Amino acid sequence: MHSIIFLGTGPGVPAPGRGSSSSLLELASAKILVDAGEPCSLHLRDRGIRISDLDAVLITHGHSDHTAGLFMLLQSAWLESRQRPLPIYLPQELIEPLKAWLNAVYLPEKLLGFSLLLHPWTLGKSAKVASGVEVEVFATTHLDGLRQIIEPEAMHRFKTFGLIIHGNGHRVIYSSDLGAPQDLKCALSSRCDVLVCELAHFLPSALFSFLQGREIGTLVLNHLSPKLTGQEKELAIQVRRELPHVGRIFIPHDGESLEF
Ligand SMILES: [Zn+2]
Description:
This protein has 260 residues and is α/β, with parallel strands linked by helices. It has eight helices and 14 strands. The protein has helices spanning 40-46, 64-67, 70-79, 95-104, 109-112, 144-150, 204-210, 232-242; strands spanning 3-8, 22-27, 30-34, 56-58, 86-90, 116-120, 127-130, 133-140, 160-167, 170-174, 192-199, 216-224, 248-250, 257-259.
């Protein structure tokens, strides 16, 4: 049996009882942290999982609600005396800033006691992130609007990567943050066992109409907008009515897990 524990399910601002985006994927005997919103270290500890148990960390983009827990995670790994290398997969643009910030907060690699293996995501190339687990990435348009405002010429920056995760014959799609549901088009061109999709940047109706007829075993709605938070029951009724072909619907709170 494989699982995803939804450690943090909240939107981009603090929400009652919900941490920022972070999930623990247990697949093919590997433990993989997907995004590191705060307080992921606390949530892992509360579930009896040591940072040393993690086989890899996958970061989809630089927004703080997906990365702010990473430094506490690495400080915790140091204090736990982690020994084995920790692979972190992330956008290329974050690698040098991450190293600089680790130096700034007194966690240079020579202190950590383990190697940080920082791997940039590459479109079109799948990465073996842990034993038995491969990940392909797809680009989403989530940060395109911010690029226009902040630095229009910076085509090498403002990247967001959705994940297609393969392991033990399963295909799991993690949307990360999207510009629009259409960003999922290529990923959903073939069946997936689990689609974990955000619902903070567009209306549920836009997502549900895009998902019509697509082959999805379990649909997880996560990272709900502040407006939708607290409306989970109504949302579940709406999605069941509009997507009757989807096998299971799951709208997790922090700490809830999905087995597949
Ligand atoms: Zn974001």
